[in-house]
């Protein structure tokens, strides 16, 4: 049970890290997870995790790289093949040589071969860490593709260099020719192995389908096992398992182009399943890294023959050395002119060079390599300064993550989406609306096609309205402020007219009470928009708790639901009354607005006049439609609710990724709350 509790605690840490990141999005999730991993290491648990580097690579790195290969932009990788290879091969070997000699010179107690092993462990960047950073930091797309391609490819070169350095240290024998031939065999063999095994898998699946075995669950299980099997088989053939799974993932990306019904259904299930798997594995990688840090640091801190300040100095010096080598390699290699496709090839883009240099984050592969250093040499003597080497590698991982998290957001391209200007709000509204339309389109089926299309048309109209807005942003902001103030006046007019209709006996007290509650909700959405959502959630929780704690309340609620089902005509009558009231109030408001035309800015008042006319027309049309349309209206309401949730999700995602400020996110949520209350609140009145 101890290991079971340990796993539960680590899964809980993943959940907590994402909750923390939701409130402090400027701190990258890997750093939060490493910190939580350190806390887990200090818990008084009966189980202690001893990391097996080989198991770590197959269990975590293989599926993560396989998924990255599946999701990679194949065209972008091909277009950037030259710079990717220069980083994944050339830079790795230059880093091993330069850092290796530098470490040996700086710390003479670390032999040259061991220094090369440390440099080889530090050479490859980490695909998981790069992915975490690129998701939050707005890097140019070409730099993002370059980093992802480099991280996919350089693990093999780094690990091969590491293995040869360790072999030279343990045996005392090294041959440059043998190492070069071995590298080519391992790298090319890994790619071929991955492609061949993937081809065999596709043929096997085709044979299964011919036999009528088209169970999506079975095919999904085979897909989950694929990266593990390919990695293990490749390692058995003594070729690169990492490049094998990367090649297999990219080949699967081509296979996704098939659009037969079986493939479409499998892709839907695959996306959901892999999203959960990758979410958990990504978190576990950095939490496990955090759990290893206390023991690694303790050994060096207490007894390494070197003062603790010196160790910190070495870590910082090596970290900045890696960044400097990367910067010089990119700058003098003229990768950036090729990357940015500048006409003047003699002037590398300095800013892009700095961004690419700082984005070379180290992570899981570096830690796994360092921890795989043997304890003893071939003659039985202890491996020199093993604990110090592992501590330096861990320190460089942390420093690279901290530097990237702190500096990259400052240097990354600032665009209009990151300011609080009205133009930024317009741009982000268009982004949100496009996202909603795209995702609603994926959910369309034969039953809700008409309703979904109506909602998507509404969003397309909202996009056109945004695009037509005046380019004078100061004027536009004044218009929005004026409309908000006028909307508050309109709510007062609606409340006034509702009381007048009640006094004249045209509506009953129950209807007036419900409609005034609706007006209160709109007023709250305008004045305290962000609190409205939480107030509604609290009200729902309160009602649910009351029903659960009081069985009689629950029974009465169920009786009311049963009564409504038995007498649907009563519900329709209530809706007719509410629609009639909304129609009368909209007509009354339109009349009052017409009286104010001469006194107000036309750009402020005319949109609200047209809006109220549309509401009145919609209520009038809804009251005379045949009953067969009621199903369509309910479907449309369901799709609208789904669209609202999609809006809320994309706004939060953009905020967490740092693409919009907190103030702009609040503004967009406020507009969403108003839309939700105004257009979707009618049902609650019935």
UniProtKB/TrEMBL annotation:
Give the signal peptide, or none.
none
Its localization reads:
Cell membrane
* Membrane topology type: Multi-pass membrane protein
Keywords associated with the record: Antiport, Cell membrane, Ion transport, Membrane, Sodium, Sodium transport, Transmembrane, Transmembrane helix, Transport
Which residue ranges traverse the bilayer?
6-24, 31-47, 53-70, 82-103, 109-135, 156-177, 183-204, 266-291, 311-329, 350-375, 387-411
Residues covered by the Cation/H+ exchanger transmembrane domain:
13-413
InterPro entries hit by this protein: Cation/H_exchanger_CPA1, Cation/H_exchanger_CPA1_bac, Cation/H_exchanger_TM
According to its UniProt entry, the protein's GO biological process terms are: regulation of intracellular pH; sodium ion import across plasma membrane
Question: Which is one GO molecular function term here?
Answer: potassium:proton antiporter activity
Q: What family does this belong to? A: Belongs to the monovalent cation:proton antiporter 1 (CPA1) transporter (TC 2.A.36) family.
Q: What does this protein do?
A: Na(+)/H(+) antiporter that extrudes sodium in exchange for external protons.
Q: What is this protein called?
A: Sodium:proton antiporter
Q: Which organism is it from?
A: Listeria booriae
